[in-house]
Amino acid sequence: MNTVPLNDLTRLCIHTITTKPWSIEEAAKNFSASGVKGITVWRDALSGRNIKRTGEMLRQHNLSVVSLCRGGFFAWREPAKRQAAIDDNRRAVDEAFELGTNLIVLVCGADPAQSLEDSRKQIQEGISLVLPLAESAGIKLAIEPLHPMYADTRSAINTLTQANTMAEALNSPWTGVAVDVYHVWWDPDLENEIKRCGRNNNLFAFHVSDWKSPTLDLLNDRGLMGEGCIPLKMIRSFVEAAGFQGFIEVEIFSNEYWKLDQSEFLKKIISAFKTYV
Amino acid sequence: MNTVPLNDLTRLCIHTITTKPWSIEEAAKNFSASGVKGITVWRDALSGRNIKRTGEMLRQHNLSVVSLCRGGFFAWREPAKRQAAIDDNRRAVDEAFELGTNLIVLVCGADPAQSLEDSRKQIQEGISLVLPLAESAGIKLAIEPLHPMYADTRSAINTLTQANTMAEALNSPWTGVAVDVYHVWWDPDLENEIKRCGRNNNLFAFHVSDWKSPTLDLLNDRGLMGEGCIPLKMIRSFVEAAGFQGFIEVEIFSNEYWKLDQSEFLKKIISAFKTYV
Description:
The structure is a homodimer. Chain A is α/β, with parallel strands linked by helices.
């Protein structure tokens, strides 16, 4: 595998949700002091804040604002909910613009009250309706395939194949794909689909964490890189062979790690990033 | 969809693990009294019993012994563990023969200490080494693709595509596939792969349950048919269009249902079978 060791932190981005106990101001200060260069902002971290000034604060800490998480949840059986989702995604575009990032990650949604096919049609329609505003604001939209264990309520797009197909159907430089190892590591088509993603200039983001054995919670038991079975270096070699040299984003939801002293957790993240990614 | 309503119980099979609080003798008595016609036996239910006489007991209750669950767990980084697995699967063939069933379901295994590709090679090799004994005993082996959330430790075969490919590579009338809706419902290739499975005479078993939202436990929170989002009638129409007319097996692992009075649970199963499958 052709991966260069990650000896410095120039490509390290951390999601605000990874250190959820910290406010965005605490996260910015601590990430920056540790040499982290990128931050992805979850919308809840912006609650009650002036978004533009928060973006300036992040840049004053020498942090690139890699993306806004998350838009999506387009799939609803009830038309009123679909319209509300489109409105909310347009707000997310405004927020991303204010914040000064050029990327929104989409957790596309699924409604267990209807078929996955119907959910996928609604997702594609929803993205197409948000796309003109995103384009005018210079904001890219990344379709994130989610692990099949989230096919009931979180996303009807469960493989990179499906995400690539939808991004290509939308046929815009403003739509692409986010590759999160937690969701796709098991996929036998992964290498080929990452190649396809790169060929079409659709590889917008790369998220890392690990899969623990056992996993005790479907949502909030992700592992730190190196403590699970995901072949991180191999998947990084795939995305880099496909032309991706952007930030490597640490996105860990973990009841266990959120209980830790977050400064200790940040040290563990940095060490794991250098050793296992 | 071309499914005939299941107005009687001639195709209903229940796994012993579904009503885990019952001994196999209690299960046999209660299933039989309720008109259930098939039983799939988990190996733990045979513990401490004479297997041949247990099989006779089941048939005296007019129960077809649909399959023995489960063989498999072939994938191990350590060669000694692989050999132990092969030995254990040969014992399972003997047990199936004694019990008087002609089918073993394989949960093929995965070892998080190695790649999924290596695990799959070991699975195929393991099955091929057990196959001569299975053939001589008249026992079929069904490869069950497991949901990708079990790719770490339970199975490196996570799609019906992979199961079909391996069954075809083994190229024997004694190897085929078990389709369990819980594992495959999310798969965009499901209909085509069920067709492929049928075309090759590899559709050996059909298991039902449901996917609850939320799912609180990765292993033991399966739903009763009708209480989740799995399109059961649609998937039954796929397997029947592919030529399958065998038993429909209810396999539910549920901490919640195991706490119920099992006679009440059995009534719920029968009602759900007629209404939602």
